[in-house]
Design brief:
With about 325 residues, this protein is an alpha+beta fold. The chain has six helices and 16 strands. The chain has a 16-stranded antiparallel sheet that branches.
């Protein structure tokens, strides 16, 4: 009589030695995969071809022309865009050495806005859908920084930016409007969404704060402006359906105290936006007599305490004072 354990041992194939039928079948399948006629080489070749195509496309793609087109969309009308130095990183993020907004046919040495080390990082997921938005943007600007996200598609325009430590004393564009020395640091945020060509769809918020602001030796259209110092200047408002309602406009200064209110109805182009605002200005307690006399020469409605209420109306490019 044969022992059951021995029968089981005799009837079982020893696969541990690699010479059983199971091992032979596995080796046969592997050999079939690795042969020239197998599927794996074809898949590897297809993957290699796709990677090589993508790398060649990235290397030969007209990056600068595309970026110039995207940036130019943000500047229309009397504003021109100038770029210097464009680099593409391995994460498909662009770096622009210098970006300037210039007044068309104006002095190129006095840009309306200038930024350095501008970094634009498109959404990699959105690139698969045929567009780069929302794109992350960051830059160094006048000793400070600006950062946020932007979507320039007309039907889904969106802007969310933050300013930090911007030194307005470095802003050379001031010479386009007046003479003098300006100092101060600006922080703030700007949020917008809507269709730029349909201002009534625009919603958002703006909040700016300037600290330790000083204007010294100023001249406006040849008229000397007294030296002014402001520990803080605030401007904030909400935008609803294309209407900016100013909720906080205040400039409590050492020589002058100012506060304002009003609204701006946005239009396309932006310069055609209509404003209706009032600004109340009065001399501070320690204001010199010369400044008090100058304030009395301002247009507007005077009050008994020396405050004057000035109305600003008209369009942004053609404001009027009453």
């Amino acid at each position: 009589m044969t022992h059951p354990a021995a029968a089981t041992s005799v009837g079982r194939t020893d696969t541990s030695r690699g010479d059983g039928p199971t091992d032979t079948g596995w080796r046969a399948r592997l050999a079939g995969v690795l042969t020239v006629s197998g599927a794996a080489p074809m898949l590897l070749y297809a993957a290699y071809t796709a990677i090589a195509f993508v790398l060649c496309l990235i290397a030969t793609f007209p990056h600068e022309a595309v970026v110039r087109q995207l940036v130019a969309r943000a500047a229309t009308g009397p504003v021109a865009v100038e770029m210097r130095g464009l680099h593409l990183g391995w994460t498909l993020a662009y770096t622009i050495d210098e970006l300037r907004l210039l007044k068309r046919d104006g002095d190129p040495s006095l840009p309306l806005l200038s930024a350095a080390s501008v970094r634009v990082a498109p959404s990699l997921l959105s690139l698969l859908r045929g567009h780069p938005y929302p794109a992350r943007v960051a830059a160094d600007m006048y000793g400070g920084t600006i950062a946020g996200t932007v979507d320039l598609r007309p039907t889904s325009f969106a802007l969310d930016t933050r300013l930090a430590g911007v030194d307005i004393g470095r802003y050379s564009g001031l010479r386009l409007f007046m003479e003098g020395t300006l100092r101060g640091k600006v922080d703030g945020e700007l949020q917008l969404d809507g269709n730029p060509e349909k201002p009534a769809t625009t919603n958002g918020r703006i909040a700016l704060r300037a600290a330790t602001v000083a204007l010294e030796g100023g001249k406006l259209r040849g008229i000397t402006v007294p030296d002014l110092h402001f520990p803080e200047i605030r401007l904030a408002g909400d935008i609803k359906r294309g209407r900016l309602e100013l909720t906080d406009v205040a400039a409590p200064g050492t020589e002058v105290v100012a506060r304002g209110e009003g609204n701006v109805v946005l239009q396309h182009p932006l310069a055609a936006s209509v404003m209706n605002m009032t600004l109340a200005v009065r001399p501070a307690a320690g204001a010199p007599d010369g400044l008090r006399i100058a304030l009395n020469l301002l247009p507007g409605t005077p009050a008994a305490d020396g405050e004057r209420t000035i109305r600003l109306y008209g369009t942004l490019d053609r404001p009027r004072v009453q």
